[in-house]
Amino acid sequence: MNATDLLRELEPLAHAARVRRMVTLGQAARSDRRSAGVIAGLEQGDVYARSLALYACYGSGDGAYALRALADPSRGVRSQALRLAALVCDDTQAQSALAALPARAQRRLLSQLAARRRYGPVDAFLATLPDAEAGPLLAYASPAVAAARAEQSLERASANDWRRLARLHPSLAAELLLRRAQAADGLDQRLRWLANAVLPLLAQHTPDAALALVHALRAQLPLGQLELGSLPQRRPDAVADLLLASGESAHIELAGVARRLDPERLRVLAARGLLGFRGAWLAGVAPQLRGELYQQAGLGWRDAEGALALDVVLALPGPLRADEARRHLSLPALATRPAPALRRRAPVGRGPRCPGAVHPQPGPGAAGAWRVDPDRRRPLPARAAARGASAWRPWQASPSRRAAGAQRYLSSWLTIAPTQRRSSPQPPAIPCPAQTTTDDRPPSTVHRPPSTVHRPARSSQWPATTTRSHPSRQP
Is residue 163 scored above 90 in pLDDT? Predict the structure, then answer.
């Protein structure tokens, strides 16, 4: 079998089957000279044949051909060889490939080698570069080499280089920034910029080191100017203590971790209003603690009209929820505007009914009193019928009345004469005695805007199909 026979054999197969066949052929080429000769024949073929030969390297482990394919004229073959080089090339071949590749392909191969923990060719390649050129690539080096050259190589590194270092060597990045924060005398804008770029990644990989860095940066920067990322979720108690000790009202998302905080911290945070919207975290706290928090800070949770948000009232324990329902029923806002107040806040419809309280009953023709406009006291379709069928707005009606209103709207529309369906006033009619119309209206009532443009008569030789029948389109 030669290369031509192999291509003829692979032609009816799908791509996955072709790849499996080439990997099997590569495994056989380790001990079979004929299989190795077939692969060598494919190397001399077109782009498709050379790509198949590269797939055979997954079975044969031929790093020499992968190294040669890095200089292939086809960009697709070069990209395929670049993915293969980190797998089949030895350290010497990988170092030769790094020396021959352009900068963009170098970074890609370095990333693949570092992902496989093959630091030998990476360290050897970085040793040939000066510190200024090695800085952007230092994250791919081994931890020892990166720590030895970090101070000099990262002096002018960008934020992306620091993010890469924090992702691959998080402890080293945190240590370097901690040294700079401790050595800084005043506000360092570059340090703030780098810390905000790195802190979200450090919070994921090393939350304790990220917390130590935040403590060191607090001497120069307010807590609200630091990007903490997921640090409040990873270390909620420490972040809460840091927030309470700072005395700031920084926006730090602690509502999702309120149930993990101890009661003492939670009471202080709730009293100072540092937990955000109460409805987002109050339901996740123990019921007894909810009542204590409400008794302590409940007055500050009310709005200008003295009402609480519905989510807050629903999260209260049963007795407090009933007391709040009675208090809401006596509010002036609820007495003067019952429908909006019930729709926005009323906890009456949820939980136990308050004994002795007057509960709103559904109004006539509506699904409930809270679905009727209190200023007009009539269902929306009835008001629409009073204003006229053309003024009815179906999106303002409830779903139960929408279909009936639409049917009534269409029925009233069809009963109107065609000449009376326009609700807007019409311009004065322009007499056109010679006009020929296609409907039952007399020519004198055809509305046509005045025009001073001269329009020549049509030729009698034109086809009749080119003449438009509408009176406003006649010449």
Answer: yes
Examine the domain organization and report whether 245 and 261 are in the same domain. Answer: no
- Nearest of 168, 93, 159 to residue 138 by alpha carbon: 168
Chosen domain end from 226, 250, 274: 250
- Do 334 and 290 sit in the same domain of this protein? yes
DSSP code string of 311-329: HHHHHS-HHHHHHHHHHHH
Rounded to whole angstroms, the Cα distance separating 207 from 235 reads: 7
pLDDT digits (tens, 9 = 90+) for 333-369: 777 765 554 444 443 334 434 344 344 444 444 333 3
Task: Label residues 53-72 b or e (16+ Cβ within 10 Å = b).
Answer: bbbbbbbbbbbebbbebbeb
Cα 316–Cα 317–Cα 323 angle in degrees, nearest 5: 80
Residues 232, 289, single domain; the answer is no
Quote the distance between the C-alpha of residue 344 and its chain's center: 29
Residue 458: CB atoms within 10 A of its CB come to 11
Residue 374's φ and ψ, nearest 5 degrees, are -70, -20
Q: Which amino acid is at 414?
A: L
Q: Which amino acid is at 460?
A: S
What is the tally of structural domains in the chain? Answer: 2
∠ at Cα 121 (117, 123), nearest 5°? 85
Secondary structure letter of residue 394 according to DSSP:
G
288 and 345 part of one domain: yes
329: in domain: yes
Q: What is the mean pLDDT of residues 442-468?
A: 46
Pick 3 or 364 by higher pLDDT.
3
| 388-417-422 Cα angle (round to 5) | 55
| Joined tokens for residue 120 | 């030998």
Cβ atoms of 120 and 146 within 8 Å: the answer is no
In a domain, 80, yes or no: no
Which of 232, 250, 268 marks a domain boundary? 250
pLDDT band of residue 408 (cuts 50, 70, 90) is: low
Residues 197 and 261 in one domain: no
Q: Residues 261, 348: one domain?
A: yes
Residue 56 structure tokens: 């055979």
Structural domain range at position 225: 157-250
Quote the pLDDT of residue 283: 81
Answer for the pair 397, 372: CB distance below 8 angstroms, yes or no: no
